[in-house]
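Table S2 (text version). Query chain:
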Amino acid sequence: MDPNGGPRPASLTLATFNVHLGVDGWGRPFDVVGGCRALGADVLVMQESWTPDGGAPSTASVVAAQLGYSVVAEVGMARGRLFDPLPTATARWGPRVGPWRSSFHLDDEHWRLRKAGTGSGSTPGRLGLAVLSRVPVRGHQVIPLVRLRRDPAQRIVIGCDVELEDGELAVFGTHMAHITHGSHAQFRRLHGLLPPPTRAAVLAGDMNLWGPPVNSYLRGWRRALTARTWPAYRPHSQLDHVLVTPPVSVLGARVGPFAGSDHLPVVVGLALT
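Corresponding structure-token output:
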């Protein structure tokens, strides 16, 4: 029985989705709720949820309220500003690669601040990581990772436990720093903080790193899916991963449809062996 007295589910559908604050590269909003609804996930790990200053709900809170999720945890990792949509936006997802970001910037990323004269309206707030669930979970924890000097965000891992029919599954969600910021130090710490491979566990998130090196850092874990997830409008690399330990069976895995972010979501079905 689950903590509320109902039968425990035999399996779990888990998804990870970097929603890019709910805007495209020009700052134009897209249908985040619709994109998350299409995943059909019991547990959703959401990266780059945006919480504006002033009391408006976060991206994760809006999705939770409209799709029947509970917010297991949502933690801000960095402060920044979300820019108003550019009037010069075209049909492209965003501007061509260059020195200026046209949708948002983090407070310690001044070199990526929108170029003067191309739109000045913006909203301050914080960028965060969230875990949402439509199934009962037992407790949660927030694990800080090594703060990197070149990274404007404090990276974390959110963990919780889900009771399945055949036992307990530990679920972890994260959003790692880029390898150019020195994320190898975070991966080394992460490996020591996660449960041993003998325990049923799953780790999901935007790793900002390709699959083979992720595997090399997380010995004993395996990738549930190998596919291209970034950039979503023309994917050539996989940055979004779900990894499981040997006691976990992967019932199915897929890349979700393009919703408007620069990342494609990943969806997996999980059970205990």
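Notes on Table S2: Residues 184-193 form the longest helix (10 residues). The domain at 12-256 is CATH 3.60.10.10 (Deoxyribonuclease I; Chain A).
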